[in-house]
Design brief:
Blueprint: E1 9-13, H1 37-49, E2 54-57, H2 83-90, E3 98-104, H3 110-124, E4 128-133, H4 139-142, H5 152-170, E5 198-199, E6 204-205, E7 220-223, H6 228-237, E8 240-243, H7 248-264, E9 273-283, H8 286-298, H9 302-313, H10 339-350, H11 354-360, E10 367-372, H12 373-385, E11 391-394, H13 401-416, H14 429-433
Helix pairs in contact: 3-5, 5-6, 6-7, 9-11, 12-13
Length: about 450
């Protein structure tokens, strides 16, 4: 895919009040809107007015465990609507915007996920996407009768087989199998029905799926794999890959690695798109943008950040002095997340204290861009044109004003530079992403 006109892609992480954990405490914020459909409809309409490719809903099947009485009850984003129920409700109030939701392969069954996504693709006219995840929140195991998750090897083996089964079920029918021939009474042509008969170590699924092949052939598959097994799975199964990156060099390295892996498994690199996450704080001047950020950071309790760091690092981070640089010789932990290395490198690179690093987690540890529209556009353009990204997942610090500011200020600047579309190219998400309709396998 030549990186010429209108090739930059943009997705939106859909959150109730924003990706910054201090946003819900601002006087103008309405955290109670997290449970109202009208609020999400407003955000979706703004995103579609801005010609974004898709919105994306993250998910977890449990509250994160928190034994710290100082922070218990203070964390936002712990209660949210089930993604595919909400996405189905957003389908009729949008016409082009893609609708992506997370579903874990650890505590779901492939038939359920295949059926839900195929239904959403039909309801939306070809705009559905599945974010394939494995469960990382340890409390999810407790909600499904287990003491802990399977180990990483088993989780990713299950995920790979899960993806194969879902893909096979999506191919249960030929595009023209449902002929609806009233004269002969033939509702579907049995020759167009394909029985999967999958028999693997984790799943035994006969099929076929009881839904006709969807408008995209198969819904778009997204994944956020940064670990070694995650990258391998993403290269084999994903159309979109989400990633958390803090520097151009890190993003470029990840991008090049993914494209090599994609090619090595026999896929075309242009058909797998890499989307780093970015938290844009946009205003008409640098001073105004900085003031927005300071307001958000002031509303964030660093103790919450330390609790979050303890989860990511797999150890109690509160044992270190709050206002001294993070030690360079932190002990390793088998419970650490793949984001530990990203946060640790940032702390070492910028000589951050524990307090400063804790505040960084207020935006989920993602790359933050704070400034006027031309600065935001300059930076996104350089990452895009210099081969570190095919697009970006926008994670506005506050909502709905964050996405509205981006659409009103940054999108016109990207359009002026010939980087972003002025109208949607297709009725389907695959079409707008420049991806071909999935072929029948």
């Amino acid at each position: 895919m030549e990186k010429g006109s209108h090739n930059l892609r943009l997705g939106l992480l859909l959150t109730a009040t924003g990706a910054h954990f201090g946003s819900w405490r601002l006087p103008e914020a309405r955290p109670q809107d997290a449970f109202t459909l009208a609020h999400y409809c407003d955000i979706a309409r703004i995103a579609e007015r801005g010609l974004l490719d898709f919105l994306f809903i993250a998910d977890t099947l449990a509250l994160y465990p928190n034994k710290n009485p100082r922070t218990h009850g203070h964390a936002p984003l712990i209660s949210h609507l089930e993604p595919f129920t909400l996405l189905s409700a957003l389908a009729p109030v949008t016409d082009h915007l893609g609708l992506a939701g997370s579903a874990t392969t650890t505590y779901n069954h492939p038939y359920h996920v295949a059926r839900i996504l195929a239904s959403l693709d039909h309801i939306s006219g070809g705009r559905a996407a599945w974010n394939l995840i494995t469960s990382g929140n340890p409390a999810e195991a407790w909600n499904f009768g287990f003491k802990e998750h399977p180990d990483d090897v088993e989780r990713y083996e299950r995920a790979a087989e899960f993806a194969d089964v879902v893909t096979g079920l999506w191919d249960s029918w030929s595009d023209d199998a449902f002929c609806f021939d009233k004269s002969s009474g033939l509702y579907f042509d049995p020759r167009g029905m394909h029985v999967l008969n999958h028999d693997g170590p984790h799943f035994k699924v006969r099929g076929p799926l009881n839904i006709a092949r969807s408008p995209q052939g198969r819904p778009v598959v997204a994944q956020a794999g940064s670990s070694e097994p995650g990258r391998a799975l993403a290269a084999r199964t994903a159309d979109i890959i989400f990633t958390a990156q803090q520097t151009f060099s890190g993003a470029k390295s990840f991008y090049d690695d993914i494209k090599r892996r994609v090619q090595a498994v026999g896929r075309h690199p242009d058909q797998v798109l890499v989307f780093p996450g970015v938290v844009p704080i946009v205003a008409t001047s640098q001073g105004a943008a900085d003031a927005k950020r300071m307001r958000l950071d002031a509303a964030f309790d660093p103790a919450l950040g330390i609790e979050s760091l303890s989860v990511e690092f797999g150890m109690d981070m509160s044992i270190y002095p709050l206002d001294e640089p993070l030690p360079p010789d932190l002990p390793s932990s088998p419970k650490a997340s793949s984001r530990r290395q990203l946060l640790f490198e940032q702390a070492m690179r910028d000589n951050l204290s524990l307090r400063q690093l804790a505040v960084k987690t207020a935006s989920l540890g993602h790359w933050t861009l704070c400034g006027p529209a031309d600065f935001i556009a300059d930076t996104l353009q350089s990452w895009f044109t210099d081969g570190a990204a095919d697009g970006f997942i926008l994670m506005p610090a506050s909502q709905p004003d964050g996405i509205e500011d981006f659409v009103n200020l940054v999108v016109p600047e990207l359009q002026r530079r010939g980087l972003f579309r002025r109208e949607y190219e297709s009725a389907t998400l695959r079409g707008n992403l420049g991806l071909a309709k999935a072929p029948q396998t």
